[in-house]
Amino acid sequence: MTKPKKAWAAAIVLVAILMALGLAGPGQLGGDAAAAKSSYRVKSTDRGSISQSISASGSVRPLITVEIGSQLSGQVDALYADYNDEVPAGALLARIDPQTFETAVKQAEAQLAVANASVSVQQAAITRAEAQLEEARRQRVRQQELFTKGNVAESTLDTAKTNEKAAAADMASAQAQLENAVATVAQRQAALDQARIDLGRTEIRSPIDGTVIERSVDVGQTVAASLSAPTLFQLAQDLSEIQVEADVDEADIGAVLSGNRVTFSVDAYPDRTFGGAVKQIRLAPDEGSNVVTYTVIITAENRDRALLPGMTANVEIFTGEKTDVVRVTNDALRFRPADGTAVAEPARPDGSARARVLEQMADDLNLTDAQREQIRDQMQERVASLRQSAAQGGGGMMMGPPRPGSGDRTADRIQMRQQMEAARDRILKDVLTDDQWQRLLVLKKERANTRRAQVWVMAEDGRLQQRPVVLGLSDDNHTEVIAGLAPGMPVIVGLERTRS
After folding, report:
1. Final residue of a domain: which of 201, 236, 266?
2. What is the extent of the structural domain holding 342?
3. Does 378 fall in a domain?
4. I want to staple 315 with a disulfide (CB 3.0 to 4.6 A). Which of 62, 222, 264, 414 is the partner?
5. Same domain assignment for residues 360 and 475
6. Per-position pLDDT tens, the chain of length 500
7. Do residue 37 and residue 105 come from a single domain?
8. Same-domain check for residues 33 and 140
9. Would you say residue 180 lies in a domain?
């Protein structure tokens, strides 16, 4: 295969990635521009970092807050914890006067003892009923034998049978009474357990390791828990890690993602910056005064306990960050030549520069040689098929803007583009691994935020020349250049001020 053919085959693979990312614009342009005239100020593109962020405000909150209440009504007898105390799980915080509940336990214990005694009585009754039944059975057998020999009347035998049945009934009654006594014991035991549980609840204990941030009762205060459990203490679990609940405007919430880096400051430490990350974006909107905001939860470390619950945080959420990218100063994007300025023909895309961009895209996906070959072969086959179909249908692959009267050709071009995009997605989905496909989706999302613009450079003949670029992230000073400019290329940023 000749060198041009090899280059074309490699470009097929890269074009498939480009189409998937929606980069159908001008590529990077290499080469050195001519020196700018002294009447213009120029500044060269460079490599560096760009970060994009949004501002919000919120409140510092404990990561986990537990409200501790009482399930019982009564008078607070003692307090064992106060504000700012650090308490371990199970620590005694307060106690409700236990006298009423201690009495209830004693009463339940007595009732259980009575129930156990009743079981003993019924067991003795069963023993007696068993003896009476056995005696009645022997009498019936004896009378049966005598009746058979003719020594007793039939009425005597009937009486013996009746006595046996009565003894059996007494036995069944005694067994039922025993079962009832046993059930009563279980009932009394449950009542005793409940009384002991209530007695135990008079001691208010901490369910977690934490810090007391609020105390709502004092000694001697009566707690009423008839309808709901009153809150006695509020504990914050481990203040070495906190969260910030930030209110983000609806216009900015679409750019916030879980995991975004965050910096924030509080009024108590104006010269200190704290760091964190977005943990959660809550879906419930907060509407007020015709303003809609969403709560974003940000987690941050607080090892020195400098951040206190309730502090107001001024938050900066970084929605996009890139390092080592080509940057152009924002002044270059705002520059426009004055009327009457000599302007050269606009620069045209450089195919080799575009290939370099595409190659970088392929590298980001970590394509193997086998994958490149598969994409190349299948894309070549699909392009050939589409061209053949267009030729048979009398259409063609239009590469330029539609001309007047070319409505049919424009429709054919749109249809062909749709077919190519569908074929491209099927090919890439089949060839790429799951991780590569997910990476491609991320790259597509990043490219969705790109835009096209123009900058001005000095052409070789000394006239201004417009150069199209594809831009990405932007901050206050610089904008990322995805395609159109190489590092170190001088661009015009304004007119040179002349001194009188």
Report:
1. 201
2. 3-50+324-389+408-495
3. yes
4. 264
5. yes
6. 444 444 444 545 554 554 554 444 333 333 333 333 448 889 999 999 998 899 999 999 998 899 999 989 999 999 999 998 999 999 999 999 999 999 999 999 999 999 999 999 999 999 999 999 999 999 989 988 888 888 888 888 899 899 999 999 999 999 999 999 999 999 999 999 999 999 999 999 999 999 999 999 999 999 888 777 788 999 998 888 999 999 999 999 988 988 999 999 999 999 999 999 999 999 999 998 889 999 999 999 999 999 999 999 999 999 888 889 999 999 999 998 887 676 767 766 554 444 555 566 677 778 888 888 888 888 888 777 777 776 665 444 444 444 454 455 666 667 767 777 777 778 888 888 888 888 777 777 666 667 889 899 888 877 888 889 989 888 889 999 988 888 999 999 988 765 54
7. no
8. no
9. yes
Residues 188 and 40 in one domain: no
Q: Examine the fold and report which residue of 156, 183, 201 is the final residue of a domain before the chain moves on.
A: 201
CA 191 to chain centre: 46
Nearest to 212 by CA among 63, 87, 392: 87
Instruction: For residues 490 and 356, state if they share a domain.
Output: yes
Domain count, the chain: 2
pTM: 0.60
Judgement on whether residues 104 and 46 belong to the same structural domain of the protein: no
The verdict on residue 144 lying in a domain is yes
Which helix (H) or strand (E) segment holds residue 94: the answer is strand 92-96
- One DSSP character per residue, 181-224 reads HHHHHHHHHHHHHHHHHHHHTTEEE-SSSEEEEEE---TTPEE-
In a domain, 454, yes or no: yes
Q: SS3 sequence, 335-401? A: CCCCCCCCECCCCCCCHHHHHHHHHHHHHHCCCCHHHHHHHHHHHHHHHHHHHHHHHHCCCCCCCCC
Q: Are residues 361 and 423 part of one domain?
A: yes
User: In the chain, what's the furthest Cα-to-Cα distance?
Assistant: 160
